[in-house]
TrEMBL record:
GO cellular component terms given for this protein: protein-DNA complex
Ranges where the SpoVT-AbrB domain occurs: 79-124
This protein's UniProt keywords: DNA-binding
Listed Pfam families: AbrB-like
Keyword Zinc included in the entry's annotation: no
InterPro entries: AbrB-like, SpoVT-AbrB_dom
A GO molecular-function descriptor: transcription cis-regulatory region binding
The protein's name in its UniProt record: AbrB family transcriptional regulator
């Protein structure tokens, strides 16, 4: 009889979090701990590394076949629309900053029009 209880394989953020917690273990031990194994009818445990690897790729948002948005990752694409948040802020997401090849610490001068905002990148040498 199957002595080891089969657990539901982790996916998404739960999988990424668990793998990070288990960083000192081998790949097979991580796959097993995340539920990527089966028990054969002879009670032999088999780790399914291919399903584990594919689940990690999906969880990381990497699109291997199909259209990518240019920054090498899947996930949300830029819609070029934003809404004012309940606290009055406008948030420009990472999809836009990646597309513009901006980096943490880049500075901008803001000038306001009647219904538009213009951002002018500050020269790093002038700072």
């Amino acid at each position: 009889m199957n002595k080891k209880k089969k657990i539901e394989p982790l996916t998404g953020d739960a999988l990424l979090s668990k793998v990070k917690q288990l960083e000192t273990l081998s790949k097979e031990a991580k796959a097993r701990a995340c539920g990527y194994f089966t028990i054969t009818k002879n009670d032999v445990e088999r780790v399914n590394m291919m399903k584990f690897s594919n689940a990690l790729i999906d969880a990381a948002g990497i699109e291997l076949d199909g259209k990518q948005d240019g920054n090498g990752r899947g996930g949300r694409s830029a819609s070029y629309r934003i809404k004012v948040q309940s606290n009055g802020n406008l948030l420009i997401g990472a999809a836009y900053t990646k597309q513009m090849e901006l980096h943490p610490g880049d500075e901008f001068e803001i000038s306001l029009g009647r219904k538009h905002i213009h951002l002018k990148q500050m020269d790093a040498a002038a700072s």
